[in-house]
Amino acid sequence: MSAKDFPSIGDNQNEEAMEVELNPNAIRTSETIRSPLRAAIESDTMAQTNLSDSPEDDSCDDNDPARPSGVIDYTFDDIVDPRTIDLKKERRILSDPVIIRCLPWRVLLLFSPERATMGLFLQCNDNSPAHNWTCSARAKLECISQSKPSLRKTYNIRHTFAAKENDWGYQTFLSYDELFNPDNGYVVNKKLHAHVEVEADAPHGTDWDSKKYTGFVGLKNQGATCYLNSVLQALYCTNSLRKAVFQMPTESDEICTSVPLALQRTFYDLQCSERAVGTEKLTRSFGWTTWDSFMQHDAQELCRVLLDNMENKMKGTDVERIIPTLFCGKMVSYIRCKNVEYESKREEQFYDIQLKVKGNQNIHDAFKEYVQVETLDGDNKYDAGSHGLQDAEKGIKFLRFPPVLYLQLMRFQYDFHSNTNVKINDRFEFPYELDLSDYLLEKTRQQTDGSPSYTKYFLQAVLVHSGDHHGGHYVVYVNPRGDNKWYQFDDDVVCSCRPKDAIEANYGNGSDPDCRAFTNAYMLVYIACDAREEVLCPVTDDMIPFSLTSRFCEERNVEEKERLAKDHAHEFATINLLFEEDFHGFEDAELFRINDIPVRSLKIKRQEVTEAKLTESIGEFLKCSPREFQLWRVTYTKTGNIEFSRKVTPSLPSTESVLTLWVQQRSRAIFTGSPTVDCYLCFFKYFDPSICTLCYCGFAELPASSNIEFLPELLTGRVGLPLTTPLAFYRKDASLTPRRVDLANILRKPKQGEVFYFHVDANQPMEVEINPLSLEVCMDPIVENNHTSLGDIPNMSLQLRKMAINVDQLDESQEAFSIADAFTQYFDSCSMLVDILLVDKLRKSDPGILIRVSSELSYWEFAKLASCYLTGDPSYLRFFVPHSSPTTGTALSNKGSNVAAQDLHVSSNTPVSSETGNGNNYSPNGAISLISEQSRAAKASGFNGASASLVGALANAAHQGLVREPPGPPVPSTSEDTLRHFLQLPPTYATITFQSASQSSVTASQQDRPPMCVSKYTSYPRITPSPFSNTNLQVPAPRRVYYAHTVLPVAQLESLKQIQVAFFGQKLSERQDLVLGVCGDGTVADILTEVRSHASLTESKKLRLMEIRRNRIEQIFPESYPLEKIDESIIELQCDVNDNIRSGLRVDEVPKEEENLEQGDLVINAAHFNKSPDDTFGVPFTVRVRNGEPYSDVKKRIRERLDVANDKEFDAWNFVLVTKSKCIAIPNKDDVVVDTEILTKESIKPWLGVEHKPPKRPRYAPSEKSIIIHN
What we know:
The protein is built from 26 helices and 61 strands. By secondary structure, the protein is an alpha+beta fold. Strands 16, 21, 24, 25, 26, 27, 28 and 29 form an eight-stranded mixed sheet that branches.
């Protein structure tokens, strides 16, 4: 009976409605089963065939709880026929557990009153409180006759057991008629004998201790890095390589950018750690972002790229020869003439061998095909130079195999019918011991130089791929000591397994039920038997350099402290400290910007948050006496206002753990009058017309019941004005609009910490005449010589400031605004200001220049403003809006959890510091070669004297910004829209939003980001912890605007028509894509003229313009053809998967043979096709034909034109003359001649088709990325 006859398989019934009996008389035995079973299998795959026994496999220790296999053999008592009793509920009988893979396994018998059958199930880990565990297993379920031992009922199951599906089997295992038939003997004296053989993989999601049970630890999967984990484990178990990696000099390297150091750390953790190891530091050193960790890649490609990178990094060190010595072999390609003494050969090195799976049954068949001798004879004779055409033999022989031999099994290939890659799951056998002596050149078997010649190998590792070409999963089986004791490395889980699990079970498709259809070996690692001791030499902890051990131990301690601090963060309150110096430098109406203030932090236990304890702790933190300062609590309201309070120790809610305090130095306290208890703290900002901005002007405590007539004198003294200068005061109303207020009414309904604004009242008479444009501003009277003048502020002249905040252009000839009007307009413009990053479109990794302008500027207003920063004529500047990537909304996390005495907001006190925090300082596009350019760009961006590490961070930030927001279309200068419309800015674009820390935390991606001081150049929205709560602030990133200096004025440039053309010279293999600007009312001759100025031509310099469609030449345009008649759909190039022009315009340099045509000559179009003339591909071309000449001469010209060197390949091509109504095959005979009449009499000109298979498609689909290690 087949599995389809059983309607219900693996049911999970409601246990509350069943009787569950634990049979007290069950007899439990435990013995080793013979057949190895593999997991990761389809749960609905079942068979009735017996499991094959493998007596050669190693036995398991019955007392080992981690053993991979075991037997549950039970004799159940009290088994009665349910039909003879009144069974109202389902009856369940469970056996005692047997421990396999550290999980309890039981046999479950199920008797139901609704069915006339007994169910038999295998149950796993039934009482576990965990909900996310899984364990893949295969088992053989048997019910054995007690009177006829040869009679037994057997079924096989495969299943992945989990918390929600922890049993699997058959509800209809045996019918009651068959079970209770005395002749069968299944039930004798109410006893039933059940026998279950189980094999299981190591479980996931449980407390599986890989180190304890195997001596190895796994690698954590970052998302899709199973291919990386498998390759790393195979390399790690190559002990001589691991030993060499530890010996690489990395003392001065940084782990975030050094691949050798990160690899040392990974290998060190694999050797010394007790639990699974992460690979984030390693992938970060590759230059990969978090997104790269979720991209699936090829294991063989990674292995090759990683070994290449390591070999380059080892050059000049004591271990520079280790990789070539271990992995490099040598082969020779030869062509040997049969009848003359002539041979051509070329020696080359190899690091791995790719063996064809399709059509081969085993590894020896693949090697024989690899070295198969090809005979060159007949029409395919070899040109032996002076010997002429000769019969010859062509082949490959191996000169030397390396000690560690990597074999890639070619299981992925391109399928021309489905037009996609497919995986070949054919059965392909490979042995444990491999003899390659038959494939080694005879004379090299005994090396003359004394070096060993390796021919006998044993299998050391098998990389297995499960899935198809779209994706899947990698695991690796390793025989680490070369003793045929195998372990399975499946990401973070390592377990022992049997040889058959690693070898036979991974052959691929076959009749063996152990082999799964889509799970098979992809890479094999063989080690030479004679090199076993050298390659697998022991690597003990004392062999690791002490400098590495101490460094990694220190890093571990730091990481452990950070982890503990994070775990106990809820027990502490974070105290953020502000100082008056933090209020300086903010030009807008706010007292400070919430996202930019440099907050100092310390931790205090929540139960100790009292005013006395706070004062004491802050005094210790600041190393000063508590009598020297006074504390004010600072809060941030929902309306965006800052409030100050003398009550500094309110009760903190359980969800709140942040307290922000302003530390006011008592020596700087300023009162107007005598200090009283009812004083109100007030801050002042002065509108300086000389720089058209608001400047911080200190604070004062104003008594509510005293006269404050001395306030103007205090403030005029601070700003350096005559003491009798009249002042106009403002305060914000409920709508956040500035309202003028009289001096006498300043303290009407005051608020602690309120900000007042003032400027010179030009409407009042002045005793001393003042020129507002020559004023100097004293920011703080307490700090001596702290003045800011117009010349001290780069690029912030009055003209620039007014241009940035006013919609109307201001010239020196225009009448100046009054101070009151300028202040009102400036205040109103603050809500419209937007941060713009001006980036050079043509300069690689330009960090850009950050400016703040009104979003209501028109195109030419913005162009004029930008030209002042870019030192150019605005009419010769062209601007481009960016294309936003799909991930533009992802926010940038600055830091993780708060740490005591750590600055939450900046990496250093100044952006020119050499300290760059925890950011990544690499540049994927080669920042090292751009240091000087980046230095200039850094200076232009305000980073004067930037260090090399900061310059590198700038380059990385610029690259990330370029990737996220690449240049898009140009902005038309004729547009009447504003900057807001150009950039598609929402009304609340510049708003800082609050998010809960759990929602906005991007701990996985923050490792890829540059330091805080340059993070604004990445185009990532920035996330910083709020200084006022345990929420995070999301700060929008500046919008990028690309610019380019043009040769022509922008207005003239916009009148040009932009056309893309592909230029081909005399060789069709050399293509140059050009973007041309020509007059829209011009002709084809204008395009050809532009091409001549960009391309390198031969002596003739004769060009022609073609229209390409479907990889065919549709027409050749005459030079007088008007451009306006060219179809708009072809002015942009479109390519196929092989990057050949599918449709578009193409400019050719006319071949010499087609320049001067004689009478009877004709130039016809030709194209490549596969099977059908409609399936064209490749690069089309033209060929000259002459009436009456043989087509064999035409074919020779085609071969020369296409530069086809392989005779056999060209001889396989077929030639067809394609007309409107039919295809005429051209026989491969010399007597077939050209008839030009056929080629000219039809209205649609025929074309010559060349039929052959298209070249091999690229390995990756257009959406996939190849593996690149940037550092």
